[in-house]
Design a protein that fits this description.
Length: about 110
């Protein structure tokens, strides 16, 4: 059975409307511990598994195929984690993926 939930469709709709209107990229955050967050109103406070991210991003790209994706990763996130997420985003339909790095804190 399909595992679609209201979260996915409402988030995709939310993102599509806002991003297209403002010509903004879709932002994926990767926290220091590797947790993934999709920065939309309906998903920004909820850590996503790789599978959940892939399902959600796939739906967003069905609505808006040319959307740019930007990965915002903590400076201490393992490179392998970032590469895995980038590969999954490409599978989900992302063609334009950028990176924003956050500096490693000096403390």
């Amino acid at each position: 059975p399909p595992r679609s939930t209201p979260l996915y469709s409402s988030a995709a709709s939310d993102v599509y409307k806002r991003q297209v209107k403002n010509n903004e990229p879709l932002i994926i955050s990767i926290k220091k511990d590797g947790a993934i967050f999709l920065e939309t109103e309906s998903t920004k406070d909820r850590s996503l598994s790789i599978e959940e991210m892939n399902n959600l991003v796939s739906k967003i790209f069905e609505a808006s195929p040319g959307l740019q994706v930007v990965i915002r990763g903590d400076g201490e996130v393992k490179y392998e984690r970032v590469m895995t997420i980038m590969a999954e985003l490409q599978i989900a339909g992302a063609n334009d993926i950028g990176l924003i790095s956050q500096p490693i804190s000096s403390q």
